[in-house]
Amino acid sequence: MKGYKTDVARAAADYLLDSAQKPDHQAAVLAFDDYIEVPVPLQQIKNSIPYKLLLRNIVPRGNTDLFGAWQAAISTLRILDNTWDRRVVLITDGLMNRGMTNPVKFRQQVESIWRTEKIATTCISMGEDWNIDLLNELASVGGGSLHFIDTVSQAEQALHEAFHSNSGVIACNLRVELEPLNSAHISQVNGVVTHLEAGNTATFPIANQLLTNVEEQFILRLEFPPLISNQATDLLRCALVYETPTSAKTQRTADKFLHIFGEASGSSYGPAIVHQGIICTAHAILSRELFKQALDAYLDKNPELGTALLEQAKIALQSTPTTPRGYQSNVTMQERRIRDLERFQGHVPLEYIKQKYIEELSHRDVIWDKLCQLFDRLLTSSDNVHFARELTELFKWSNRMIDNYKLLLPIPFDNSNAEYLQDKNHLSKRKRFLSMEAFWLSVMANHVSKMLDEQKELVQWQTENSRDQSSIIAILAGACFGLERTRQGTQEEIRELMESYLESKYAIILAHG
Prior knowledge:
Residues 1-167 form the VWFA domain. Helix content is 45%, strand content 17%. The protein contains 15 helices and 13 strands. Strands 6, 9, 11, 12 and 13 form a five-stranded antiparallel sheet that branches. A hairpin with a 6-residue loop joins strand 11 (232-243) and strand 12 (250-252). Helix 1 (4-19) crosses helix 6 (152-164). It starts with a helix and ends in a 7-residue tail after the last helix.
């Protein structure tokens, strides 16, 4: 990488170092081209300034040993155990011309590491001369995400999203600030009649949480008198406002302006006011929605419907009259995704969809999948718990383990919540937390009592030890208390998850009471 690419890569590294200045964070920076260096070894960054200055001395030299750099990063992260969210972030153009250059082998290695060690690989690319096929495959099979950057601000945003893709939340309380300009006015917002005249400013909510790879739609009706040919004007100023999920600090994006030109028209009905980019965006949104419905159909084992919906998604793109230059990348990416499924000729493997297109599934599916993995880990870990002889001890142990596994939780939280149980200045919150605990203890007690009355047989774990149903219920009930306490979902949602998990894994039906 040379020129501005190096500057953008340094900005990304700077942001990473700043983000690692927390007790529960560690970071390392590797520099690579013909050679691989580790200017910043893996550590908690207490003061990022000296390391930023050190990175300024790194200059581009020659070729790119991308696979070797990735291997070195994996070796570095193996120092940490699997309770950490371990992630390699490759900032590269994806052009391999040094060392091992076989893309198939690279993909296989990334997939294997993610499957066996849960070390994710995220790819961040710059410029126009990048290997999209390789980087997309690495991110897809490696449990990571793919980002494209061209400026310093984009680099910071990409790094933020990369390390929050596992949590799902990249912004909270997202809203948009709107101001019509000149002769324009807003008459509708998301289907609701609104009267916002030119020169006035108003803020409208978009989402409580902005989730990784989940699109949010905001639709407004902007009215303005038609422009004469070649006339130019600004119609709208807008900016996004949100709080960061980790620090709750309010952020505001730069102002964006809707600038239009009056188009010449041969029609006697007046000048054309529909921009080709708007038409292209509408077709792309329709195609993505049909693509998602096709995925759902394949997952429901209905390949005929899936294939028909996939064909409709393809037609939605092909029927776009013109694709302006600035919209071509989104259309091309959607075309690639459609071709990717078409090659299976209607027989798309379910695991392939879940691995590569997990972001297309509903957010609840993503959250539940991660929480079920956490249940698996807790039940396996409890084999080594010898002190807990009573069910209440297992319950409390499992609840405490949720704090130990906080980096694996889909939705981030801070440890200050745990202090409410002891802090007399937070009596209302302490009461609410005790109420949560009582609910999950009652779930445990009710089911165990009913189970003993019916004299159900013991179930065997898929491990060396066996554990009766009472212990399983106690561990999961304690975990669910921890999940509700850390706001991974509502009480109803978490209980539904627990019931589904027990029924599918152990054929246990929870007793309601």
